[in-house]
TrEMBL record, chains A, B:
Homodimer. The keyword Aminoacyl-tRNA synthetase does not apply. Transfers an acetyl group from acetyl-CoA to L-homoserine, forming acetyl-L-homoserine. One of its GO terms (biological process) is homoserine metabolic process. The active site is at 190 (nucleophile), 357, 390. Keywords: Acyltransferase, Amino-acid biosynthesis, Cytoplasm, Methionine biosynthesis, Transferase. The keyword Glycosyltransferase does not apply. Its EC number is 2.3.1.31. This is Homoserine O-acetyltransferase. NCBIfam families: homoserO_Ac_trn, PRK00175.1.
Amino acid sequence: MTGGRALSTLCPRTLGRLRPAGVLCLFGAWPLTPLPPGTPGSVPLENHLVTVCQDAPLPLDSGATLGPVTLAYQTQGVLNAERSNAILVCHALTGDHYITGPHPVTGKPGWWEDLVGPGKLIDTRRYFVVCANVLGGCMGTTGPRSINPDTGQLWGLTFPVITIGDMVRAQARLLDHLGIERLFCAIGGSMGAMQVLQWSVAYPERVQAAVVIAGSWRHSAQNIAFHEVGRQAIMADPDWCGGDYLSHGRVPQRGLAVARMTAHITYLSEPALHRKFGRKLQNPSEGVSYGFEADFQVESYLRHQGASFVKRFDANSYLYITRAMDYFDLAAPHDGVLARAFQKTPTRFCLISFSSDWLFPTAESRAIVRALTAAAANVSFVEVTTDKGHDAFLLDEPAFHETLSGFLEGLAQKAGLAPRVPEARS
Amino acid sequence: MTGGRALSTLCPRTLGRLRPAGVLCLFGAWPLTPLPPGTPGSVPLENHLVTVCQDAPLPLDSGATLGPVTLAYQTQGVLNAERSNAILVCHALTGDHYITGPHPVTGKPGWWEDLVGPGKLIDTRRYFVVCANVLGGCMGTTGPRSINPDTGQLWGLTFPVITIGDMVRAQARLLDHLGIERLFCAIGGSMGAMQVLQWSVAYPERVQAAVVIAGSWRHSAQNIAFHEVGRQAIMADPDWCGGDYLSHGRVPQRGLAVARMTAHITYLSEPALHRKFGRKLQNPSEGVSYGFEADFQVESYLRHQGASFVKRFDANSYLYITRAMDYFDLAAPHDGVLARAFQKTPTRFCLISFSSDWLFPTAESRAIVRALTAAAANVSFVEVTTDKGHDAFLLDEPAFHETLSGFLEGLAQKAGLAPRVPEARS
């Protein structure tokens, strides 16, 4: 598979040491565990991998170190000679590096298929777009379903607990590998926004611009609570086997599905659920069943969300990544004063929130804007009015797209990046 | 145990056929199943029971009939000679008839201990207060953990699916039994509010006043979704045994705890969780554990909520009662026009909502007020500004108490109910 339609024409211009999506570049001798075919959540082996941290293990916030580390990633477009046109896209909790598809497990388009590609908002004829599966993930990057090289066994729950800081540190190694000193822009929504903020704080000189969508500088009590429910649902499933389910040939599908169902509600909004489903019945002519089957369309929808999620996601990865989000707090090292985290930042910020997002509400973006302003940072902020809730950043939301487009366009013009080449008609 | 402090002095005035709380009045030969002592969720046998529907089975909305039906209830105060001072309190999803305690399972005060009693807001020196465990419940009233008299076996999932309408129909039988033709007032929050609305629609002539707190005329898509998650969590627990867990000597504790944890978040509010817990750690001096134990206080709190809930509630009851709430829709029989449900209603309504309640948001109360107004009903409405969320009706919320107190006082004066007798100082 290829990462984008433009690759075939643009690849010849790619610098020699860069491998675009579609080219397996596994440097280490450390493949993903070949799970039995058809195992729910099993990861295809045709990922685009690079092994970093072989000589210098990755230091983790917990104090542990990890190495070597494999990163699965996708690139699109061409890195220009100045290496000044790289955009790092950071994915959300249950996302992965398949911003464009087809996704190897679901066969569906990528999660930002509408935004990324030649001639699109994030124009791969202008930008070199990189997205890597996060540390702790399950789509090729080192995580709890990888092999611990010291033991030859699956990591499982012996995998070290990681943080958003660790994820970003691993991504920095990937950029080193790709020869990208400074990002034109880092962009992400939700947990991706956390990574973008972390990038701007940990590596301010490496981030020219940061687009923080539906994010926060720390995970709220309510969000920790929802994550804890999801973790408890997974760990309550006997098929979880204390985290050792893969060794037992089992998968905690029911627990993971319940976790997903709970989380999925938080990604939407009450008005959107009302508009989409309301109290519509599965079988309007028959009425309710007076039973516990999915009488309402919203029940059927949720069950489907749970069932399809377990086919593409790993339960332990869910535990580790939710934990990383819970631990995220950029203000904590500064006695709760967020502005100090951004002192003298050279980064140009754009924050975008969605009016109906109750998981990462606008108030949290505003608090970041206040802190950035107090740190004399260059910051723009837009609250997009929509009923689509938190997941609006994944959906067709014109006002959001216009904001993002305008910000990038202004930035690119200022940076003197080559204008878009009109698509040839053939 | 007794139902309230005033009972010992007031009981002699109670009409002969009435049994206040504390007196076992089991008319049928149909006790609760004597579960092994200590079984989580087991129901003490000293409930205050009455068996109704022996001769005339209760017709259910599903088309089935049920009888005899046992109702567990608590009363406080004295029914006056005119039988005009009865207040029916309707409890919420996980509540029961122990409005005052100590609760026989938890040993804690009742859920409205602060509001109900002599000299309190709902003054039992003035009113005769009745509260019954709902149909489908697990604290003595007939439900899935009762015995099916036809088979001699536990009902389990063979218990018919019931509705809010069925709950109210059973309560009407209880009032018949108690000799109460017309209620001075029906009061309830959350699912209790649904019952109060149902009372006003099904038996308008029997309800002089209705206090509808944090309620709705129908369960929203988002609320159905949250309930479905809870049900899936229970049914995913292998200890649920297809609903037959009691016969197997098992209890789906983990699934029920996850259901409760999810629901509990929805009863609070983000600001309240932030104020109460924020990101406070269990062991601040030690920092985070880099593990999956409860690092944050909010996690520990939620786990405690789950663990304590399974000791006092039955998993199948949770399925049945959530289903009854999901099915509730007063507008459905009227082509979605809610006002028609209230045509020519003689009832005086008071609606109270809480500004931070996102489970039954103010907008839903407003919609009821609009419908009542369109039906020319007598209606008052107050939105109480609070950060306490949906559960504010169970908490110390002065503005709510003032509203309720003022409404009842005005109503009582108009009805010529005896003024409060000052408590004797001894």
